[in-house]
Design goal:
The complex is a heterodimer of chains A (434) and B (345). In chain A, the strands form 4 sheets. A 5-stranded mixed β-sheet of chain A has the order 2-1-3-13-6, sandwiched between helices. In chain A, strands 14-7-12-15 form a 4-stranded mixed β-sheet. Chain A has 434 residues and is of the alpha/beta class. In chain A, helix 9 runs antiparallel to helix 10. The longest helix of chain A has 24 residues. Chain A has 2 domains: 176 residues, D-Maltodextrin-Binding Protein, domain 2; 211 residues, Periplasmic binding protein-like II (D-Maltodextrin-Binding Protein, domain 2). Chain A is 48% helix and 12% strand. Chain A contains 19 helices and 15 strands. By secondary structure, chain B is mainly α. The radius of gyration of chain B is 27 Å and the shape is globular. The chains are: A alpha/beta (434), B mainly alpha (345). Chains A and B meet through helix 1, helix 3, helix 11 and helix 18 of A and helix 2, helix 12 and helix 13 of B.
């Protein structure tokens, strides 16, 4: 027996020794190593990310190991709770991140990035968007503009429609299109577990432009009731766009809730057009590229920003962008974030299209691939009131309830009061931090 | 390493990052593959030495405990301990520090939305096991009588190999909706419009039939499993018994009702109760297809959203306890039946 136990002891030591051998080695002077990134991109967006990161990997030898999920809130929270966070997380909203920041699970960037360079290259709005409780925790590497109306200029020309400059002109145009036998709008709300969000964009754009930044900020912070006059008014204004019984929208409620948001623009390009206008963020062009036949920017589609609902808040726009945070402090992660803030990185992003607009001011307008993305970059420059996507700022259960409310609203607009009262109920619990 | 490089060079499609895979995980892998069995063997051998020192009489009663102790420890650590933790949490508020008694349960059960959730769970509970058993039994009995039994059974069993999420994605194509003025690309609507000249329907969004549409996906996935087990039970019925009945002049329908069905009943009950447990666990299909919208929410998905979206551990725990309470009686019944079937063999 003693001999047997000696054999066991030796084998155990051998295994432990083997386990100790497995360490990564640096690659000739470069930083080397790997950054584990958690994000939401797939397809064309993932390809763009790869293209942006390639020079970084070439320069530093740092490899990017990317994990994609559409349910980033759950995956990130689970990973953090398990003590196994990714090095860098790129989240489309900061609702969950705020919770993690307050729980001390996110690395502050104040002393990790070159702040003076950041101040020189970034507008103050964009740096402030990255702050939680006064600490810089998130970095935005690109922006996307919401509240854009896509249309087919040929279809507009054929019918003699003019691009509306004011909200009243938009309302008139709606009626003109309807009396001509057409449908003014295409709306597509299906997005699996996130279904309803494209409609929530409509509402938040109207809130910001109709009632201004203060109401907007109070609203996403949970200090403004959903049943309040301002928020209710935004929903009824959207109801005027949809028309009673969704009569202004191609395919009615069935089409709206059953159609994937990315396919929503297809109605613009059929002949005769199924609809004349489609409201979606600047990223939608990467979906347009996937249509058959592929529409050409400029000739087949053009864009105008949603007119100001109230002239008191002229030039107000809802913007969005992926928020990069360090969920684990590693030299490789720091290097990656520093790189993402550079014009070099953002230049690659904007040149690849997909509606991404650079935040770094060193990226010149001439780098944008076509007239449309150039004009969007101009809109961002001209923006007077910029606010981040309210839904993405809300706690995730508030946001999910908001999305579900959109689906209920388009199915029966007369239930608005009940829907808003339910949202108020969620609001009272959602903002109590766990 | 060179061999691996060569391999990846020859197979450019196989872009595996061997460096990461091997350098990081190999020692861990070896440690697990060799180390864990080694520790277990050392444990058994070591304790056997101790047991042998005990008086001869008590040895037989102690030894079994030595053998089952690791299993009990693991089950205790990763199943019983969290379960008790969940039950305790369900009686505290969402911060986990104030005792609220049954407050969470009352709050949940008086919520308007929960009635629809419970109704949907009931639908799943009745329809999913019912349809799976019905189709499984039908296919088992019918395929038993044809020459091409094996290919048929293989085909029907195949969805078992697909995860629920992948099934949901596949069925999205079946249920796909396009407006009436364009050609239908979803299978179901194409049939409805082209053969029956009906209006296309939003199968997944329309509250009149979306729950049935979702349950059908589960049934499609579960039927193969039921069929295989029921078919094995069917083949276990002695041919002489059926022969004797036929000689006595019983027709096939009587034979099925009076001989085959009673003999298969214990297996049917085991499969049925297993399916009931599956129905209570149902989550993936609803999560992927509707995220609980359009009146299709079920308990497990609601628990998930309470946990990950709301971060409300109190409500999530209470929902878990409700599910647990529903599952336990079925589980006990299932185990008893299973034992009865085994005893009869």
């Amino acid at each position: 027996m003693t001999r047997l136990s000696r054999v066991f002891a030796l084998m155990t030591i051998a295994i432990l020794a083997l386990a100790a051998c497995g360490t990564t080695q640096g690659t000739g002077g470069k930083l080397g190593g790997t950054v584990h990134v958690l994000g939401t991109w797939s397809g064309a967006e993932k390809d763009s990310f790869d293209a942006v990161m390639k020079p970084f990997t070439d320069q530093t030898g740092v490899k990017i190991s990317f994990e994609a999920t559409r349910d980033i809130d759950a995956i990130l929270q689970t990973k953090v709770a398990a003590g196994n966070p990714p090095d860098v997380t790129a989240a489309p909203g900061i609702g969950t991140l705020i919770k993690l920041v307050r729980a001390g699970k996110v690395v502050s960037l104040d002393d990790k990035l070159d702040t003076s360079q950041l101040n020189a290259n970034y507008g103050a709005d964009w740096i402030n968007l990255g702050k939680v409780d006064g600490k810089l925790v998130t970095l935005y590497a690109w922006a996307s503009l919401k509240g854009l109306v896509w249309y087919d200029p040929k279809a507009f020309q054929a019918k003699g429609y003019q691009v509306p400059k004011t909200w009243d002109e938009l309302m008139t145009l709606q009626n003109t299109i309807k009396s001509g036998g057409g449908k003014p709008w295409c709306v597509a709300l299906e997005s699996q577990a996130a279904s309803g969000w494209p409609g929530s964009d409509w509402v938040k754009e109207i809130v910001l432009s109709q009632s201004g930044a203060t109401v907007y900020d109070n609203w996403w912070q949970g200090k403004q009731k959903w049943t309040s006059t301002e928020i209710k008014q935004a929903w009824t204004t959207w109801g005027q766009i949809l028309g009673s019984g969704d009569s202004n929208v191609y395919g009615g409620k069935q089409y709206m809730i059953a159609t994937t948001f990315g396919d929503g623009g297809q109605g613009l390009f059929s002949s005769p057009p199924k609809c004349y206008m489609f409201n979606q963020g600047s990223f939608i062009t990467s979906f347009f590229d996937g249509y058959t036949p592929k529409p050409t920017a400029g000739t087949d589609y053009a864009v105008f920003p949603l007119p100001d609902v109230s002239t008191a808040n002229a030039g107000a726009h809802v913007v969005a962008g992926d928020a990069f945070v360090m969920t684990k402090d590693t030299p490789q992660g720091r290097a990656m974030l520093k790189y993402l803030a550079t014009a070099q990185a953002q230049d690659i992003w904007v040149k690849r299209g997909g509606g991404k607009i650079a935040i770094n001011k060193q990226v010149s307008l001439s780098d944008y691939p076509d007239a449309i993305s150039k004009s969007l970059a101009q809109v961002v420059v001209d923006t007077k009131i910029a606010r981040y996507d309210a839904g993405d700022l809300m706690p995730s259960d508030m946001r999910n309830a908001y999305w579900s409310a959109v689906l209920k609203f388009v199915q029966d607009q007369t239930k608005l009061n009940t829907i808003l009262a339910d949202l108020d109920k969620t609001q009272t619990t959602a903002y109590a931090s766990p | 390493m060179d061999g691996m490089t060569l391999l990846t060079a020859r197979l450019p499609l196989l872009e595996v990052d061997w460096e990461t895979l091997l350098t990081v995980n190999l020692p861990t892998l070896l440690f697990v593959v060799i180390g864990v069995p080694l520790v277990l063997v050392a444990y058994i051998v070591g304790f056997d030495v101790l047991v042998r020192r005990l008086p001869k009489r008590s040895q037989p009663s102690v030894r079994p405990w030595v053998w089952v102790a690791p299993a009990i420890a693991f089950v205790g650590l990763i199943l019983v301990y969290p379960m008790i933790g969940t039950i305790v949490r369900s009686f505290f508020d969402r911060h986990g520090d104030t005792f609220v008694g049954l407050g969470n349960f009352v709050g949940l059960l008086t919520n308007q939305g929960i009635l629809i959730v419970l109704r949907n769970n009931l639908l799943w509970l009745l329809l999913y096991p019912g349809l799976v058993l019905l189709f499984g039994l039908l296919l088992a009995v019918l395929s038993d009588r044809v020459r091409y039994e094996k290919p048929v059974k293989s085909l029907i069993f195949m969805p078992m190999a697909i995860s629920f999420v992948a099934m949901a994605i596949i069925w999205q194509f079946m249920y796909y909706y396009r407006p009436p003025d364009v050609a239908q690309t979803g299978t179901l609507n194409a049939i409805l419009v082209n053969i029956f000249h009906g209006q296309p329907q939003t199968w997944v969004q329309d509250s009149r039939f979306n729950n049935f549409a979702l349950i059908l996906i589960g049934v499609w996935g579960g039927t193969g499993f039921a069929m295989v087990i029921l078919s094995a039970a069917l083949k276990g019925i002695p041919a002489e018994l059926l022969e004797a009945a036929r000689v006595d002049g019983a027709n096939e329908r009587t034979i099925f009702r009076r001989i085959i069905l009673p003999l298969m009943m214990p297996t049917i009950v085991v499969v049925g109760t297993t399916m009931v447990i599956f129905a209570l666990k149902a989550f993936d299909v609803v999560y992927v297809m509707t995220a609980g919208n359009y009146n299709t929410d079920i308990l497990a998905r609601r628990m998930y959203s309470e946990l990950y979206n709301a971060g409300n551990y109190a409500n999530a725990s209470a929902l878990a306890v409700i599910l647990l309470l529903a599952v336990v009686p079925v589980l006990i019944f299932n185990l008893r039946q299973f034992r009865a079937v085994e005893a009869r063999r």
